[in-house]
């Protein structure tokens, strides 16, 4: 019998105030994060990936944002309505986050040691000497040389890759059960990207930390994730096992994303790109949100909103009417 997931998001809807109305940025998404797994969330900018991660960390700014619906269940407890005081005990301790740009996440006025020590002091009862020793262990764990010297340095004295390693060390300071990494390799060059991904995979194996990796890069997902969720305009359009989705993508958007990945084996005059842009949140009130950009669009797509259909493959779900054309025997049910 499968264990309960460590984190379960159920029918989450997050909206932001625009004028007198609230506009949904994340609209009814549901997924599970299993113990010790690496789950990828993929999509273009504006698809709702980062808002999902901020909601999971209890960091939606209110106003203008609010969680209108849904549950965020961590170890059997719904975090949606807990107080800020309770959130402080969980955030950075049991659920941690690595932000996209380390230079804006690290305080330029404090040394690396000060910032790392503060994270440990907040959630543990260790002595000053033990905290310093823990900081040195963490910096070594994330592959930073001369760890003791780095503690005395300021963020501007480190390279982008080193700063990102410090952010990972801070996120891992209290051995969290869940680590959310929001585009952790975006601002880094390819060599450092590979090192950071290898480091995250290594930490996952050594500490059994469950990781949610948010990215727009399917190459990154193929490298370290076990399952993947594809988001578009605040909804999940496809989710399932990484190998299944990369070998046999079912949603036209996922197919478009995969076609957009450059192939070094053959020269092309022009790289493929999906026509159009992600719609503004709240601008589409009926029909499929991808219809205006879809090469396989049907008249039905403009009138009705497709559900998330389960395919024959275990756990593979896709939000597309094309599956109803393949015969109803292809479906084992419909989820929200």
Low-pLDDT residue spans: 327-336
Structural class: alpha/beta
End-to-end CA span: 24 Å
Tell me how many strands there are.
13
How are helices and strands ordered from N to C? EEEHEEHEHHHHHEHEHEEHHHEEHE
Please give the count of helices.
13
Question: Could you walk me through the main structural features you see in this protein, from its secondary elements to its overall organization?
Answer:
The chain has helices spanning 49-56, 84-90, 102-105, 112-123, 128-141, 147-150, 160-171, 190-207, 218-224, 242-247, 252-259, 299-303, 322-325; strands spanning 7-18, 21-33, 38-42, 65-74, 77-78, 95-98, 178-182, 210-215, 227-232, 235-241, 308-310, 317-318, 334-335. Strands 6-7-8-3-9-10-12-11-13 form a nine-stranded mixed β-sheet, with helices on both faces. It is globular. β11 and β12 (317-318) form a beta hairpin. The chain is 32% helix and 23% strand. It is built from 13 helices and 13 strands.
Short descriptors:
alpha/beta; four-stranded antiparallel β-sheet; 336 residues; nine-stranded mixed β-sheet; 32% helix; single chain
Task: Give a quick summary of the entry.
The protein has 336 residues and is of the alpha/beta class.
Topology:
Layout lengths: L6 E12 L2 E13 L4 E5 L6 H8 L8 E10 L2 E2 L5 H7 L4 E4 L3 H4 L6 H12 L4 H14 L5 H4 L9 H12 L6 E5 L7 H18 L2 E6 L2 H7 L2 E6 L2 E7 H6 L4 H8 L39 H5 L4 E3 L6 E2 L3 H4 L8 E2 L1
Parallel strand pairs: 3-8, 3-9, 6-7, 7-8
Antiparallel strand pairs: 1-2, 1-4, 4-5, 9-10, 10-12, 11-12, 11-13
């Amino acid at each position: 019998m499968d264990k309960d997931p460590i984190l379960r998001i159920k029918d989450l809807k997050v909206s932001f105030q625009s004028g007198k109305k609230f506009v949904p940025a994340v609209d009814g998404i549901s997924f599970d994060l299993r113990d010790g797994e690496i789950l990828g969330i993929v999509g273009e900018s504006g698809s709702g990936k980062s808002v999902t991660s901020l909601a999971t960390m209890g960091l939606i700014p209110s106003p203008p944002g609010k969680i209108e619906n849904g549950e965020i269940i961590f170890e059997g407890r719904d975090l949606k309505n807990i107080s800020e005081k309770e959130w402080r005990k969980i955030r950075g301790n049991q659920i941690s986050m690595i932000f996209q740009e380390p230079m804006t996440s690290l305080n330029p006025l404090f040394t690396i040691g000060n910032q790392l020590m503060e994270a440990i002091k907040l959630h543990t009862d260790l002595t000053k000497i033990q905290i310093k020793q823990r900081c040195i262990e963490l910096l070594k764990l994330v592959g930073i040389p001369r760890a003791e010297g780095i503690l005395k340095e300021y963020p501007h004295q480190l390279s982008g890759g080193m700063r990102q390693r410090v952010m990972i060390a801070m996120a891992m300071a209290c051995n969290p059960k869940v680590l959310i990494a929001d585009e952790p390799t975006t601002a880094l060059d390819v060599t450092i990207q590979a090192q950071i991904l290898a480091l995250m995979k290594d930490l996952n194996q050594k500490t059994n930390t469950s990781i949610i990796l948010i990215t727009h890069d399917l190459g990154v997902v193929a490298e370290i994730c076990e399952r993947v969720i594809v988001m578009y305009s605040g909804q999940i359009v496809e989710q399932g096992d990484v190998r299944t989705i990369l070998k046999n993508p079912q949603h036209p958007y996922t197919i478009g994303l995969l076609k957009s990945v450059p192939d070094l084996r053959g020269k092309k005059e022009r790289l493929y790109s999906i026509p159009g842009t992600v719609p503004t949140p709240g601008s589409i009130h009926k029909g499929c949100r991808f219809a205006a950009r879809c090469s396989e669009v049907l008249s039905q797509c403009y009138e009705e909103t497709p559900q998330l259909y389960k395919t024959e493959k275990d756990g593979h779900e896709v939000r597309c009417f094309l599956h109803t054309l393949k015969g109803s025997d292809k479906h084992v049910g419909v989820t929200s």
